[in-house]
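FORM 7B: Structural annotation worksheet

SECTION A. Query
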Amino acid sequence: AAMGAVRACRHPVVAMIKGLCVGGALEIALMCDIRIAGTSSRFGIPVNRLGLVMAYAEIEALIEVVGRSVALEILFEARVFDAAEAKDKGLISRIMPDEEVEAEAWATARRIADGAPLVNRWHKAFANRLAKGTCPANPLTTDEQAEGFACFDTEDFQTGFKAFLDKQKPEFKGK
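SECTION B. Predicted structure
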């Protein structure tokens, strides 16, 4: 339930990964939107060595992050691998020197927080909806398509647009 809450959070979530990120730790990291790791971090899901199965929600998150084939490779082989391979697989967003991971995670959060909060929430919600697919059996509704234009009616848009015209950094409320 806690992992689902991280994934369902309407705000962007940044994972700060220092050291070992294996099994349940990686499952939690998968629930985050952005994953920043140190060069010495190690990754893997060796549950098949314990006779355990990864649950649907965690496998779904793994597939969304790395794709089906790579997800199955990680699950079938149960290897523990380094940060460079994790980045190559798309498992993490960024690799930093170990001593810079925390500062970069906080800087990332600050860059996100400096943006319009409603827009960040919309982008996350739209990405989540699109991840479910838009095939003929599950098309975007008229309301969903119209929601993309709702930003024009917000104070965030007025603040951002005015700052753009004034060539200033916007100061959004509601953070």
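SECTION C. Observations
The longest strand covers residues 34-38. The beta strands are 14-17, 20-22, 34-38, 42-44, 81-82, 94-96.

SECTION D. Sign-off
Analyst initials: ____
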